[in-house]
Design brief:
Layout lengths: L1 E8 L10 E10 L8 E9 L10 E4 L3 E5 L5 H20 L10 E6 L2 H8 L8 E10 L2 E12 H4 L5 H18 L9 H11 L5 H10 L7 H4 L6 H4 L1 H22 L1 H10 L5 H14 L7 H17 L3 H14 L2
Parallel strand pairs: 5-6, 6-8
Antiparallel strand pairs: 1-2, 2-3, 4-5, 7-8
Length: 330
């Protein structure tokens, strides 16, 4: 028979209390009914250990622990990475409301297949990723598997390699900084929009792309508050527009309410307890309306509720204001 298992471990130098977990399936065999079960083989199913991919070379800077694979261009890439990682840390440190940790974990992945294996995300269009997992322990959520992954195979195809790489690193670092305030039910537009805005990845060019695409009216915060971006299934162009729109939404909210109030809205999701989620689920189930109780519906209802508290408006109202601001600044 097969059984599910996991390997829990820490990494020396990654930071106090940082935990990592890899899931696997184990095949068990025994000689007869009276014999003990023995592990005959295993296969990692999620978050495979990085050392199995050869990412075993290690380097430490003031604020980062870096793992990579040694190769002909290792020293050059490592030197650039150290400078870019510390530059990102320094730039984000200037946002006084962001609470930066002492050290973060970063992996330099030089092959797209390895990037997909270790992150579980298709590496064709993604230039980087930040991982964080959440587990309910008692009445609280704990965060583990916090790390940044840089996809150098994808980045090498970019004309402005150095600039694109710096933006990618800063973007992913925002995710790591906010990971303790993020939950699996925080809407994707809020998570990605915060990183896009704080990395300054929206401008007149991205605004024009939204307007010229003809998709501006079909994108909405209400739709984007129900789980993953729809563009993940439809292609890179639509996914990019959803990222741009999320950044514009956060830029608008920060301008209207200030960074401190926006972060209060962002962090309010981490204050939601399992009991709160259960109550919201039961409320939707008992309402008898068209909105059935599903994880997507609960996420939407929760986002709408918290936006009214912290932003003084529901999602539809904020959405109309964001689109008006985009058209005004075109």
């Amino acid at each position: 028979p097969d059984v599910s298992a996991f390997m829990d471990y820490s990494i020396d130098g990654a930071g106090d209390g940082e935990r990592f977990r890899s899931d696997l399936n184990c095949s068990l065999v025994r000689e007869d009914a009276s014999s003990p079960w023995l592990v005959d083989g295993w296969k990692f199913t999620r978050n495979p250990p990085f050392w199995l991919l050869g990412l075993t070379a290690r380097h430490q800077t003031d604020h980062f622990l870096i793992f990579y694979r040694k190769g002909p261009t290792t020293k050059r890439i490592l030197d650039i990475s150290c400078r870019q990682l510390e530059r990102a840390y320094s730039e984000l440190q200037r946002h006084s409301q962001l609470e930066l940790g002492d050290r973060y974990l970063a992996f330099l992945v030089d092959e797209g297949d390895d990037f997909e294996t270790i992150t579980g995300m298709a590496g064709i269009h993604l230039q980087g990723a930040a991982s964080s997992s959440y587990k309910l322990e008692g009445s609280e959520f704990t965060v583990f598997n916090r790390a940044m992954f840089i996809n150098d195979e994808s980045l090498r195809q970019h004309t402005w390699w150095g600039e694109a790489r710096q933006k990618t690193i800063t973007h992913e670092l925002v995710h790591l900084i906010l990971s303790g305030d993020t939950r699996q039910f925080t809407p994707t537009w809020l998570v990605e929009g915060a990183a896009v805005h704080l990395t300054n990845q929206i401008d007149t060019r991205t605004r024009w792309a939204l307007l010229r695409s003809g998709h501006l009216d079909s994108i909405s915060l209400s739709k984007l508050s129900r789980g993953q971006f729809p563009g993940h299934k439809r292609g890179a162009q639509e996914l990019g527009l959803e990222y741009h729109y999320s950044g514009e939404a956060v830029r608008y909210l920060v301008k209207q309410h200030g960074l401190s109030q926006f972060l209060a809205f962002y962090r309010s999701f981490a204050a939601v307890s399992p009991a709160d989620l259960d109550a919201l689920w039961r409320q939707l189930s008992a309402s008898g309306g068209q909105e059935k109780a599903t994880p997507a519906a609960v996420m939407h209802e929760l986002t709408n509720k918290l936006s009214k508290i912290h932003l003084k408006g529901d999602l539809d109202e904020i959405d109309r204001r964001v689109k008006a601001a985009i058209r005004k600044k075109k």
